[in-house]
UniProtKB/TrEMBL annotation, chain A:
<dbReference type="InterPro" id="IPR027266">
    <property type="entry name" value="TrmE/GcvT-like"/>
</dbReference>
<protein>
    <submittedName>
        <fullName>Sarcosine oxidase, gamma subunit</fullName>
    </submittedName>
</protein>
From TrEMBL, chain B:
<dbReference type="GO" id="GO:0046653">
    <property type="term" value="P:tetrahydrofolate metabolic process"/>
</dbReference>
<dbReference type="InterPro" id="IPR041854">
    <property type="entry name" value="BFD-like_2Fe2S-bd_dom_sf"/>
</dbReference>
<feature type="domain" description="GCVT N-terminal">
    <location>
        <begin position="597"/>
        <end position="868"/>
    </location>
</feature>
<feature type="domain" description="Aminomethyltransferase C-terminal">
    <location>
        <begin position="886"/>
        <end position="973"/>
    </location>
</feature>
<dbReference type="InterPro" id="IPR006277">
    <property type="entry name" value="Sarcosine_oxidase_asu"/>
</dbReference>
<dbReference type="InterPro" id="IPR006222">
    <property type="entry name" value="GCVT_N"/>
</dbReference>
<comment type="similarity">
    <text>Belongs to the GcvT family.</text>
</comment>
<dbReference type="InterPro" id="IPR036188">
    <property type="entry name" value="FAD/NAD-bd_sf"/>
</dbReference>
<dbReference type="Pfam" id="PF01571">
    <property type="entry name" value="GCV_T"/>
</dbReference>
Amino acid sequence: MKWFPRILLTRMEGACVTDLKPITALGASSARVQSMGSLTLCETPDLAFASLALRRGQGVPTPFGLALPQAGGFVGQNGLGAFWTGSDQWMLCAEGRGDSDFAADVRAQAPGCSVTEQTDGWAAVDVTVADDAQMQTLLAKLVNLNPEFLSPGHATRTGLHHMTVFVVRPNTTQLRVIGMRSLADSLWHTLATTAKRLGVSSRPQAQSPN
Amino acid sequence: MTRLSGGLIDRASTLNFTFNGTQYSGHPGDTLASALLANGVRLVGRSFKYHRPRGVFAAGSEEPNAMVELRSGARQEPNTRATVAELYDGLTARSQNHLGPLKHDLLAVNDLFAPFFAAGFYYKTFMWPKALWEKLYEPMIRKAAGLGRLSMLPDPDAYDRGYLHCDLMVIGAGAAGLTAALTAARAGAQVILVDEDFRLGGRLLAEATPFAEISATDWIAQVLAELENLPNVRVLPRTTVFGVYDHGVYGAVERVADHLPEPGDTVRQSLWRITARRTVLAAGATERHIPFANNDRPGILLAGAMQAYANRWAVSPVAKAGDPVAVFTNNDDGHRSALDMIRCGVPVLGVIDPREDAPRLGDYALYNGATVTGSRGRHGLREIEITQNGKASWHDVGALGVSGGWNPNIHLASHHRGRPVWDDQLLAFVPGQDGPPGLVPAGAAAGRGTTAQALASGMGAAQEALSDLGIKAAPVALPEAENAAQGQVAFWHVPGKRRAWVDLQNDVTVKDITLAHKENMRSVEHLKRWTTLGMATDQGKTANISAMAVMAELTGKTIPQTGTTIFRPPYTGVSLSVLGGGDTGAHFRPRRLTPTHHWAKAKGAQFIEVGQWMRAQYFPQPGETHWRESVDREAKAVRQSVGICDVTTLGKIDVQGADAGDFLNRIYANMMGTLAVGKTRYGLMLREDGFAYDDGTCARLGDDHYVVTTTTAQAGPVYRHMEFAHQCLWPDLDVQLISTTDAWAQIAVAGPRSRELLSRIVDDFDLSNDAFPFMACAELTVCSGLRARLFRISFSGELAYELAVPARYGHALMERLMEQGADLGVTPYGLEALGVLRIEKGHAAGAELNGQTTADMLGLGRMVSKKKDSIGALMSRREGLVGDSRRLVGLKPRDPNQKVTPGAHLFAQGAVQTMQTDEGWVTSACYSPNIESHIGLGYLEDGDTRLGEVITAANPLEGEETLLEVVSAHFVDPDGGRLRD
């Protein structure tokens, strides 16, 4: 599975045909990308979100063939993903469809479910790191979670610097932090500050040998 | 120089530093204290009250005396313990608490007046006249007493926070801690090993030969090498665990860059929240001293500290090399300290021991059955007086080590109100059984203080802790270690008439405790507050037990009968910067930006914080010199042509499900289930207690799909309230909720020409009054195919709409509306104009919905439906609420140029202004450019029947009184015709 964002706000098939030009959550025409040593932050405006909640007594659907995960889980394939957000609730996401009516697609895939457009409710930042060790160091500075709950294939909602976020771990070297769109600026600041400290400077060495 | 050979310092490199402006040098591995002592500097500060000369007393974080102002400029840090400050090249430090040079402190005169500064001095002295306390006495006392000075500049360094999780945390990396960590690490547990020192090893570093066959440093190196190679172990040196909190959460501060001149790109300190399933407390023990006459001179220090300076830092704490030292002890450990001094080549005058049967452990003079009864030396110890068999004699010494036994470091074990237990054998408090859950004490912290005991108990504690978690840990091979007997006698102080210091940091003497006892301060808590014993930065680490022993002696009780000391966090001082966790300034807290923020910024908008949101307050135009000019222009434009305003911040909650209508009927006080698809209705929510909670609109987009809007302030709380009702009150209802506040950029388009403007951007949509009347809503497309939602609702009282598009298009939509509306005079308006418009229209906002308001007060009493039940409906009918006759009214000053002051209270004209005659208050006020008068809204008793009456608005804080006419709250278009056209 290739789970990397496209950098530009590309027009996809089925995309909105308006003559208005969108901006990213960080207020620019293209996604912000910043590398700090072996860490890279990347805004992902092409990512679409839609929430899916079961009606009372309804069976669990398999939208786009995705087996909707249990609590704390994330599944992804072919640029589509889903993570658990609550009892009988999931967030579905799709690469490259930020500009389209993704909720309508989900509604078609999950008839009878309550589906709500969430694409612009959120701003996702992908953080890529060199390896699992660096990921652990990063996570320890961001979220108060036992690392085992954020191993690849996991997602959870948690607090991050006084913001509410979803953190998704699609694979070993990638962390997707999904915050409220209005907080994108603060979220980026937090992630960039943390990444800069981890990516650029290593921990100062002790002066005395032990 | 008083440097000895050996030690754990790197003599290959030299570090230069200054103390009080004088240049000195030391080596990597030194602390500021060891480097000062190596340079023969014994006088390092002045005492708190009497300004007596003081020197280094300890070798760790328990230090009561050697506190300095470290660094300079904005980084100047007061009250830094020289004993834990790592030396770096270029370090600057200054001594504290003196007037003039340290050696010739002018305030040393205080010592002559010592009889006046007895226990409870402040309480007894500065009683009268009361008025002088704040202006004279307090500043004077603060200047004379007290410790270091703040730089008064902002902290230039960065701080951060982090979170760690583990199976086992080991606090302290001495013999017990290292063994515990090794035992757990080999068993595969996730282990965090924390130590406050920069060099791991704890007390092993301070002793010459703790092991029989291997040097301490070699053993430590072996253990650390193994731990550092294991992926399941994290070692955190320079990290102090300062508190135990609920659910196995420990607070710790890592001093990441305190040992560097400047942190550079990294943080200065990190705050760690460590969640540990189990913890081994291997924090060691703190030596106590034995108060005797004039025992506070520089050169008198703890015997274990003297031993540590000699072994670890290769320093003898004397004035000049070759000066002899002596040890005054009531226990065998003191003798071993003397032996180590001899081993290090320091002449030892002898060991003074009150025990008649004191052992002689080596080749030194033994003064058994003897005590030290005095000392001499103006700025540092020169002589001690030894009294043996009733005969006193003076002896030259350069330093005196004092050992009164060891107190286990039970601080963390007594958080969570764990009660320590007195151990008669050890003559010390040890951790009780009721300490923080999951915390197992080991080694000296558990009273298992010999090296062999510490090793074994460290291993045992790890095994015990892990076995709770179902992890079986095998024993590890322990080196053969010192396990000498710990003989000691209960000897707490040397009785005498002269002052003998118990608490060096707070200048509390045995006499002070005696006086406090005479004055009936017999509980240790009272003793502490009366004498200040155990307060300030060291929290009495070297004083508390001695003080209790003295008190016990005075009361004729045992120590445990006298009391126990327990401890609160923090273990040692924690800077506010690190507790703050990092961000200051603009990023002090997260800021929410609207979808049109960047557009507004480019338009020159002034912003204002509304909760977390930054909202455009007004948009100044060239030539406008006062905010009122901008706001008046914006408010008039809305009434006369068309204005646009970002209202995204209002909460939006998507409600779906077969029972959505039923659910909303229960949430809203008014009927909502009957709302037709394609319609919007104003709704009022009540709290459980019947007061008004929030208002907003509810739009029905489909048979089982509604969108609820809330006020900006209550967006989160209302959503939470609805989730609570859904999950806890009525889980049987088929309802699904999700916030969509951020997802949609919502723009208010308001004014008589709003329809005209909108018609230019909607795609084939009939905006006529018949097709899309007041309170209609629809899903449609705008700007050639962009999905959007349109609501015909009005906060301003004009013909108005709110148009929602996906947030990413908000910016472009604003630009498009400005472009398309240029000929219509389209005007962006901000929060101020929004406020003016809604006050003119008499619409309630946060100031009116302040939690004290009933539906009746808002004039919305009839909205609380009796045909159904809803949250708060029943409680809204209770006597106290129904009886409230205050009603929302409009208020207009008799003189239009007079302001209406929000918060002013309302009285009948000429009435005496008291609580009893108070008839209400002004909730909101503004200048209305449309009415050309200041206006306001307020709650007034029977206000609905008093239109036309003139009342008084009083603001006694400012001495203001204004005559206001009671008018309809609807200053503009009271019939609502404009809305509906």
